[in-house]
């Protein structure tokens, strides 16, 4: 049986807005994506990692303790309870038509990831993840006109 769970959290801390998107597509692994933005929308940090589902609690405790410790050493930051709303299509499956449109816009256009995110109603992290899923390199300055591989085809 396939389990699919998605959670999203967003917080403003200091002058940054942080977004965390957690996705559990199987009973075995969890994907965690993190992004930090300045008020003007510029992305200043982003990353993702995959954990075994069995390691969620200890890894979460370790990450929290490590980041809180580092924040204490660096002087910390004031936490705000204001949260940004999630993009309109956050957590919804991609259709074949959206995949085709994203592939076309990425390979033929010059729109930045943020603009594609607004167009599709998704986060920057979601756009980057979907480009990778489609076999396109989201970090390729040449726009990956030659897909690395297409995992949607047999």
From TrEMBL:
Query: Where is region (Disordered) located?
Result: 75-98, 131-154
* Top-level lineage group: Bacteria
Q: Where is the composition biased (Basic and acidic residues)?
A: 141-154
Source species of the chain: Kutzneria buriramensis
Protein name from the UniProt record: Uncharacterized protein
Task: Give the lineage.
Answer: Bacteria, Bacillati, Actinomycetota, Actinomycetes, Pseudonocardiales
């Amino acid at each position: 049986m396939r389990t699919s769970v998605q959670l999203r959290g967003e917080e403003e801390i200091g002058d940054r807005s942080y977004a965390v998107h957690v996705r559990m597509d199987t009973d075995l692994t969890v994907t965690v994506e993190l992004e930090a933005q300045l008020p003007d929308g510029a992305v200043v940090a982003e990353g993702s990692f995959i954990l075994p589902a069995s390691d969620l609690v200890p890894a979460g405790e370790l990450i929290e303790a490590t980041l809180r410790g580092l924040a204490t050493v660096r002087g910390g930051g004031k936490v705000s309870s204001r949260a940004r709303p999630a993009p309109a299509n956050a957590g919804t499956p991609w259709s074949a038509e959206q995949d085709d449109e994203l592939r076309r816009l990425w390979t033929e256009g010059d729109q930045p990831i943020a603009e594609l995110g607004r167009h599709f109603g998704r986060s920057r992290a979601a756009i980057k993840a979907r480009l990778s899923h489609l076999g396109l390199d989201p970090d390729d300055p040449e726009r990956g006109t030659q897909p690395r591989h297409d995992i949607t085809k047999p």
